[in-house]
Amino acid sequence: MAFGDVKSAQGLSELNKYLAERSYISGYVPTQADVQVFAEVGKAPAASLPHALRWYNHIASYSPAERKSWAEGVSPLKAGGKPTTAPAAAKDDDDDDVDLFGSGDEEEDAEAARIRDERLKAYADKKSKKPTLIAKSSVILDVKPWDDETDMKEMEKLVRSIEMDGLLWGASKLVPVGYGINKLQIMSVIEDDKVSVDLLTEKIQDFEDFVQSVDIAAFNKI
């Protein structure tokens, strides 16, 4: 698939669809194709494009030096109607630009082999020290009361009293649902590996004197 100008609404929409089932632009690891599209996009996409936003934030978490070290990749950006190959990273004296695998010359001497092995080890050590990216999600919950006599302030207080490692409560508001009844709509950010949304909704529903039901209004990867 090739998509057009990612600075346009249509191009960003095509990029969002492209990334719906992909982690990266080309293959299963970040490449120069990601760097090229990242530079073209220029700024974080809107929340209405969750797949493009998730990808953009992930690429932005790497430093420029780390991005420069990535291999080439096939970019779906249109150039004359055809997908283009992302340009190779510029070469300088940075360790990230070392040719890790060499030319494969069968007559390579022992000294050259030793130097290459040392560089491979240094590269592996550097990558092993890179901080692990923590997967997070933005979740908006609709908490519905039993009737119009439910104390909504007390209900929100009870909901916010729930504390879990990896859970952060955000803004909230009351949304009319009819017959004088309001539901509590509350935002949260969770760490995916630590917080189960199902468990969180169960904990809220345990306040059965106040809560009739809990629905997930929105769920987006960050």
Automatic annotation (TrEMBL):
<dbReference type="InterPro" id="IPR014717">
    <property type="entry name" value="Transl_elong_EF1B/ribsomal_bS6"/>
</dbReference>
<dbReference type="GO" id="GO:0005853">
    <property type="term" value="C:eukaryotic translation elongation factor 1 complex"/>
</dbReference>
<feature type="domain" description="Translation elongation factor EF1B beta/delta subunit guanine nucleotide exchange">
    <location>
        <begin position="136"/>
        <end position="222"/>
    </location>
</feature>
<feature type="domain" description="Elongation factor 1 beta central acidic region eukaryote">
    <location>
        <begin position="100"/>
        <end position="127"/>
    </location>
</feature>
<feature type="compositionally biased region" description="Acidic residues">
    <location>
        <begin position="92"/>
        <end position="109"/>
    </location>
</feature>
<keyword id="KW-0648">Protein biosynthesis</keyword>
<dbReference type="InterPro" id="IPR001326">
    <property type="entry name" value="Transl_elong_EF1B_B/D_CS"/>
</dbReference>
<dbReference type="InterPro" id="IPR014038">
    <property type="entry name" value="EF1B_bsu/dsu_GNE"/>
</dbReference>
<dbReference type="InterPro" id="IPR036219">
    <property type="entry name" value="eEF-1beta-like_sf"/>
</dbReference>
<dbReference type="GO" id="GO:0003746">
    <property type="term" value="F:translation elongation factor activity"/>
</dbReference>
<comment type="similarity">
    <text>Belongs to the EF-1-beta/EF-1-delta family.</text>
</comment>
<keyword id="KW-0251">Elongation factor</keyword>
<feature type="compositionally biased region" description="Low complexity">
    <location>
        <begin position="79"/>
        <end position="89"/>
    </location>
</feature>
<feature type="region of interest" description="Disordered">
    <location>
        <begin position="74"/>
        <end position="109"/>
    </location>
</feature>
<dbReference type="InterPro" id="IPR049720">
    <property type="entry name" value="EF1B_bsu/dsu"/>
</dbReference>
<dbReference type="GO" id="GO:0005085">
    <property type="term" value="F:guanyl-nucleotide exchange factor activity"/>
</dbReference>
<protein>
    <recommendedName>
        <fullName>Elongation factor 1-beta</fullName>
    </recommendedName>
</protein>
<dbReference type="Pfam" id="PF00736">
    <property type="entry name" value="EF1_GNE"/>
</dbReference>
<dbReference type="GO" id="GO:0005829">
    <property type="term" value="C:cytosol"/>
</dbReference>
<dbReference type="InterPro" id="IPR018940">
    <property type="entry name" value="EF-1_beta_acid_region_euk"/>
</dbReference>
<dbReference type="InterPro" id="IPR036282">
    <property type="entry name" value="Glutathione-S-Trfase_C_sf"/>
</dbReference>
<dbReference type="Pfam" id="PF10587">
    <property type="entry name" value="EF-1_beta_acid"/>
</dbReference>
